[in-house]
Amino acid sequence: MTSENIPKAYDSRDDEFYRQIGDVNIRISGLNEEEKDVRDGVYAEIVKSLVKTKKMVHVIDFTLNIKKYHEAGSRKKYAINIRIICDSGDFQADASEWDIFKVVRIALDKLEKEIFRHMEKEKMQPKSR
After folding, report:
1. Which of 46, 79, 102, 103 is exposed most, by the fewest CB atoms within 10 A?
2. What would be the CATH architecture of the domain defined by 3-124?
3. Domain spans of the chain, in order of start
4. Could you read off the pLDDT of 60-93 as tens digits, one per residue?
5. Order of strands across the sheet with 24-29?
6. Distance from chain centroid for Cα 107
7. CA distance 117 to 35
8. Cα separation of 65 and 80, whole Å?
9. d(CA 32, CA 128)
10. Structure confidence at residue 96 (pLDDT)
11. pTM of the model
């Protein structure tokens, strides 16, 4: 898939970014236009995670919210909230860390594990006749 196949649009808020990959809507909020490189790196991590996640469930909507805390000096602490809406339900994960890419990876890993556990639980339940 090339970048010209991926439509992108900005909301009226400067810190919201939308993309759609196939039938999955992706929304990233909390990073402004000046943080384009960071946003693109976060987006790349999301795409990697969605490749794994889409093997387990049909993802419809993906939302990642970023909040910055302790913005003193050059260091910032980031809190991430991720929510996926899929055919099996809604899943959510949170994390906080000083490095943005590390916190995104932590939250995505938590989300993948939660979805995997849910799918394993569904497999173990006896099927009704």
Report:
1. 102
2. 2-Layer Sandwich (3.30)
3. 3-124
4. 999 999 998 877 777 889 999 999 999 989 999 9
5. 8-10, 16-21, 24-29, 59-69, 77-86, 89-97
6. 8
7. 34
8. 6
9. 50
10. 95
11. 0.80
